[in-house]
Amino acid sequence: MSLISRNLQAVHGAIDAAAQAVSRQPHAVSLLAVSKTFAVSAVLEAAAAGQRAFGENYLQEALDKIAVVRATRPDLALEWHFIGPIQSNKTRPIAESFDWVHSVEREKIARRLSDQRPEKLPPLNICLQVNISGEASKSGVPASEALAVAHAIAAMPRLRLRGLMAIPEPTSVVAEQRLAFRQLHDLFDQCRAAGLDLDTLSMGMSSDLPAAIAEGATIVRVGTAIFGTRTYAE
Ligand SMILES: *Cc1c(COP(=O)(O)O)cnc(C)c1O
Question: 32: burial class by Cβ within 10 Å (0-12, 13-18, 19+)?
Fold first, then answer.
């Protein structure tokens, strides 16, 4: 068994344990494998072990991998999620090549994605990224503006607003991890109470996955625990 498939098995075990600890169904949490900086061979190895959904942060790197996989292994039907920062002049290839975008933080970006989503594809699945920790430097719409932006996105014809995403400030204190995730869940409940048909809470990474699942994550985005430590090119 390859290292990646063993890691995937361990992550699924961690998801199941975290879900059972709070009496949630393990299948209510889906695993997004974050393959940024890893070669297409790593994606294919994970796919061979049954993984279908992959997350990417860097547009050109992602487009290269998607093209290789679609050309050489169309049978795999992988699902591609864009989770990185979005420049407004780069929305078209995102709208054309991805199934999901988790990192929408402005109405203007959402409008461009909707306008540019090809008619032959289903609506693009969207998570609104929220700045739950509240620091000025962090990405995401401020929590106080999230409901209004969510309403605007939900009305865009070629998008399907699925839910909220956050990357809280890193901390090893589990109580702090849970507090941040709970804040995102509260916002999610507010959006639903306001009539938005949301089903997705994208939260939790390798180091805070149990806390995210305890607070209701439906998608966890895991890179390191599956593929190993990343090394960034200079
Ligand atoms: C890199 C990244 C991840 C995965 O992080 P790990 O700590 O490697 O699991 C998840 N979400 C986003 C938005 C990322 O950029």
Answer: buried
Handedness of CA 61, 120, 44, 210 (dihedral sign): positive
For the chain, what are the domain ranges?
3-17+29-227
Q: pTM of the entire structure? A: 0.97
Q: What pLDDT score does 186 carry?
A: 98
For the CA of 207, the nearest atom of ligand 1: 7
**Residue to substitute in 31, 59, 83, 203 for testing ligand 1 pocket (most ligand atoms within 8 angstroms of CB):** 83
Q: Which fold has domain 3-17+29-227?
A: TIM Barrel (3.20.20)
pLDDT of residue 21: 97
Q: Which atom of ligand 1 is nearest to the CA of 205?
A: 9
Q: Which is the closest atom of ligand 1 to the Cα of 165?
A: 13
Mean pLDDT of 168-176: 95
